[in-house]
Amino acid sequence: MNLTISGHHLEVTPAIREYVQNKLERITRHFDHVIDSHVFLAIDNLTEKEKRQKAEINLQVSGKTLHVASAAQDLYAAIDMLMDRLDRQVLKHKSMLQNHNHVAHKRLPDIGEAAAA
């Protein structure tokens, strides 16, 4: 999996990079067919008292790109919310991939034949 972490109005420190990598291990534990991931961290200076930390991720899996965004007062809290949302989306995507074990309509017994027997 290729991982890219970039920051806007923020220097990506090794501690932040390691924190994001540790959180992404949970995602790859559930679903290991991840091709590429791009994490975007930003700080929006709205006013002096209210600073909003944002985290976004684009996770490219085979045939689909999952996009999740979150915002919080603390960057680590934003990353935690981001990974929780991403985990739910990955599990949903994985269940959709595995949910192809339905019986074809051709193979079902005809109701008229079952009543006649």
UniProtKB/TrEMBL annotation:
Looking at the record's lineage, which domain of life comes first?
Answer: Bacteria
Annotated membrane-spanning segments are: none
Subunit annotation: Associates exclusively with 100S ribosomes, which are dimers of 70S ribosomes.
Mention one GO molecular function. ribosomal small subunit binding
- InterPro entries attached here? HPF/YfiA_ribosome-assoc (IPR050574), RHF-like (IPR036567), RHF/RaiA (IPR003489)
Q: Which family does it belong to?
A: Belongs to the HPF/YfiA ribosome-associated protein family. Short HPF subfamily.
Gene Ontology terms, cellular component aspect?
A: cytosolic small ribosomal subunit
> What species does this protein belong to?
Telluria aromaticivorans
- Keyword NADP present in the record's keywords: the answer is no
| Protein name per its UniProtKB record | Ribosome hibernation promoting factor
Supply the alphabetized keyword list.
Answer: Translation regulation
Give the GO terms filed under biological process for this record: negative regulation of translational elongation
